[in-house]
Amino acid sequence: MLKNTLLVFLLTGGMFTGVASFSQRDTLLVPKPEPVNFSSQPTDSLEAQFRKRMRLVLTAEAAVYAGTMAGLYTMWYSDYPQSNFHFFDDNQEWLQIDKAGHCVTSYYISRMTSYTASWAGMSRRNAVIYGGVAGFTYMTTIEILDGFSANWGASVGDLIANTSGALLFVGQELLWKDQRLSLKYSWHPTQFADYRPDLLGANAIQQMVKDYNGTTLWISGNLNSFGIKDSWIPRWLNLAVGYGAEGMTGSVVNSTDYNGKPIPPFDRYRQFYLSLDIDLTRIQVKNRWLKLLFHTIGFIKIPSPTLEFNTNNKLIFHPLYF
User: Fold this and answer.
1) In DSSP terms, which residues pair with 307 in a beta bridge?
2) What is d(CA 191, CA 187) in angstroms, rounded to the nearest whole number?
3) If I label 79, which of 23, 38, 221, 249 is the partner at 20 to 30 A Cα–Cα?
4) Distances in whole angstroms, Cα of residue 321 to Cα of each of 198, 199, 272, 301
5) Which residues on neighbouring strands pair with residue 73, listed in sequence order?
6) Is the pLDDT confidence value at 31 over 50?
7) Average of pLDDT values for 61-65?
8) What local confidence, expressed as pLDDT, does residue 28 receive?
9) Angstrom distance (rounded) from CA 153 to CA 147
10) Is 181 in contact with 167 (CB distance < 8 Å)?
11) How large a percentage of the chain has pLDDT more than 90?
12) Within its chain, how far is the Cα of 30 from the centroid?
């Protein structure tokens, strides 16, 4: 299940807005916050500032965690029966779009929690580890909820995807001290939700979470950080590779009807994309709230000209794809 896009919106937006709103005099740094240098200050002042900021960070994270878990339970689990904890093999569902979504979400939770810990004054290495553990733990909580739901179950594939996302963040920080590769998300409405509104969403908000046909997950690499530094190439320009799928009106096999109405026999197929992208966190701006906005929405793939190749052996150029 791809509950993850909703989580990213709530988690990153809530966490950073919470930290910023309680700290009017502090500056959120871009591209990433570093621990504040208190070397010129007395030890007592350093420790007091660190404790103050960590209380703020932990309070904001706890509030966002509780709020998103309550929201997910209401939206996904409350209408379905509970059971004993069990595992369920869903690796063949939705042409693995949901697994890519788990990876993206775990990555961004790890990234955001690490940066807030760094802002609070935690050492870089400890903040990186803290972020990776937080991302994996947060997503594991969802697997536990799945495991107690009679309609689903905990998924080994989801756990692997969650681990991969957290490790991508941690590995890059330890190797490069930079996020040269970012995982991103984009979505557009499709016709398929009209045939299964119960499964793919009855309105745009629900479809952004449920309709995998319109979901594309991206890995976006920054050209400048990989050594491509010609003067005409902006430091925020990225090259992105995306994965999507269409033609799905069922998780593994398509539905043939809904409420007595026949559903056309759509072909299920995978889509692979090559596109330009913008790393918003590398754009130099002075306004603190604009920096906050760029960090908060940094996981969204910027619409750009895109080349698509799909498993129907078609090559398609999109002048502007989202």
Assistant:
1) 274, 317
2) 13
3) 249
4) 27, 25, 12, 10
5) none
6) no
7) 87
8) 37
9) 4
10) no
11) 61
12) 19
Rounded Cα distance, 98 and 119, in Å: 32
> Which long-range contacts does 249-256 make (Cβ < 8 Å, 24+ apart)?
249/192, 249/195, 249/196, 249/199, 249/200, 250/196, 250/199, 251/90, 251/93, 251/94, 252/92, 252/93, 255/195, 255/196, 255/199
Looking up tokens 């190749």 gives 309
Residues 154, 161: Cα–Cα separation, whole Å: 13
Secondary structure letter of residue 300 according to DSSP: B
Q: Residue 254: which residues within 8 A CB-CB, separation 6 or more?
A: 247, 248, 263, 265, 266, 268
Other Cβ atoms within 10 Å of 34 Cβ, number = 12
Q: Of 201, 12, 215, 44, nearest to 113 (Cα)?
A: 12
Q: Which two tokens stand for residue 313?
A: 């052996």
Residue found under tokens 């080349």: 307
User: Cα-flanking dihedrals φ and ψ of residue 318, to 5°?
Assistant: -105, 115
d(Cα 197, Cα 29) in Å, to the nearest integer?
A: 42
How much is the average pLDDT of 222-247? 92
Task: Say which residues have a Cβ less than 8 Å from residue 78's Cβ, sequence separation at least 6.
Answer: none
Per the DSSP assignment, residues forming a β-bridge with 238 are 222, 277
**How far is residue 69's CA from residue 126's CA, in Å, rounded to a whole number?**
26
Q: Is the previous residue joined to 81 through a cis bond, with omega within 30 degrees of 0? A: no
Q: Which one, of 207, 214, 208, 216, lies nearest residue 188 by Cα?
A: 214
Three-class secondary structure of residue 309 per DSSP: strand
pLDDT of residue 136: 94
What are the φ/ψ torsions at residue 145 (nearest 5 degrees)?
Answer: -60, -45
- Mean confidence (pLDDT) of the chain: 86
Backbone angles phi, psi at 294, to 5 degrees: -60, -40
By CB atoms closer than 10 A (0-12, 13-18, 19+), residue 288 is middle
Give the span between the Cα atoms of 232 and 271, in whole angstroms: 31
**d(C-alpha 246, C-alpha 78), whole Å:** 29
Report residue 67 as tokens: 């709020």
* DSSP structural state of residue 149: B
CB hemisphere CA count around 39 (13 angstroms):
2
